[in-house]
Design a protein that fits this description.
CblAdoTrfase_CobA; P-loop_NTPase; Cob(I)yrinic acid a,c-diamide adenosyltransferase; alpha/beta; ATP binding
């Protein structure tokens, strides 16, 4: 065999990447505001995946969901909840009302608004707690979000703001009041959330080209929930 021949080890990679134990750590460059919006699928998925990446480095991550309270086609316990529960340093809360706002499913708009308002109040508490914590230091992986987090994901808050379930001005003020080292991730909405895009450091428009729902597919276990 010649010296330049490709071996099986070359194809597989001679030095596979080995996982390391997850130990509490502190990020060196967190503190940006991210907005993920658009009519395409994947906004929440992208945010949760980024949270998984941060948690894998030992950073404290928390996700607070608006709007997503379950429907007749989606189980209450979704796959992401089980996965997050199994991952050190990653936690979640859900403030959504059953059904989907203005989806003609018989749910009450006032209840949607009440649950969204409660979620927003909870978001302000977590942001304030992060301001009291030392985010330049590691945080206990099993500690409550009230003791501080390095990354906070507010899933569907842009959708809630666009629909008037929470005051867009209040969302803007929350973003502007966040502590310097808190990475704040906001998702949701098919309409551009102008109330936060001007202050965000990263804005991603997730655009739809096609979606299986248009051909009659409902949400599928393992991909949508």
């Amino acid at each position: 065999m010649s010296d330049d021949a490709t071996t099986d080890d070359d194809l597989r990679g001679a030095d596979p990447l080995e996982p390391r134990p997850i130990e509490p750590a502190a990020p060196e460059e967190f503190g940006l505001v991210q907005v993920w919006w658009g009519d395409g699928k994947g906004k929440t998925t992208a945010a949760m995946g980024m949270g998984m990446r941060a948690a894998g480095h030992g950073y404290r991550v928390h996700m607070l969901q608006f709007m997503k309270g379950g429907t007749s086609t989606v189980e209450d316990v979704r796959g992401e909840y089980n996965a997050i529960h199994a991952l050190p340093g990653y936690s979640y809360e859900n403030s959504g009302h059953y059904g989907w706002h203005r989806f003609h499913d018989g749910t009450d708009d006032d209840e949607h608004a009440a649950r969204a308002k409660g979620g927003f109040e909870r978001a302000t508490e977590i942001v304030a707690a992060a301001g009291e914590a030392d985010l330049s230091s590691p945080l206990p992986l099993d500690g409550p979000a009230d003791d501080g987090v390095h990354m906070l994901i507010l899933d569907e808050i842009c959708y809630a703001g666009n629909r008037g379930l929470v005051d867009p001005d209040d969302v803007r003020e929350l973003v502007e009041s966040k502590p310097e080292n808190l990475e704040l991730v906001l998702t949701g909405g098919h309409e551009r959330p102008e109330f936060v895009t001007e202050t965000a450091d990263l804005v991603t428009n997730v655009r739809k080209e096609s979606h299986p729902i248009e051909s009659g597919h409902s949400a599928r276990k393992g991909t949508e929930y």
